[in-house]
Amino acid sequence: MKKIGTTIAAVAMLSFSFSCLAQTKYWIFLKDKNTTDAPAISPKTLQNRLQQGLTLYDETDLPVKKEYLQQLQTADCQTLNISRWFNAVSARLTAEQLQAVQSLPFVSKVQPINGQFYIAKTQPNRRSAMAPVMTQVQADEFKKAGLNGKGITIGVIDAGFLEAPTNNLLKHIFDRKAILDKRDYVNPPLTYSDKFYTTAETFSDFHGTEVMSAISGANRSESAQNGLATESQFYLARTDHGTREFRGEEDNWVAAMEWMDSLGVRLINTSLGYAQGFTDPNENYQINQMDGKTSIISQAAQLAADKKGILVIVSAGNEGDDPSWRIISTPADAQGVLAIGATNQRYWNRIGYSSIGPEFLPYLKPNVSCFSLYGTSLSAPVITGFAACLMQANPTLTNKQLINLIEKSAHLYPYGNNFVGYGVPLASRALALLQNPAESGTTYAREIKASGTSHTLKLPGTSDMVSVFHKKSSMHVLTQEIVRLREGQLTIQRLEGETHTTIDLKTEVIEVVWE
Question: Which family does it belong to (predicted)?
Answer without folding.
Answer: Belongs to the peptidase S8 family.
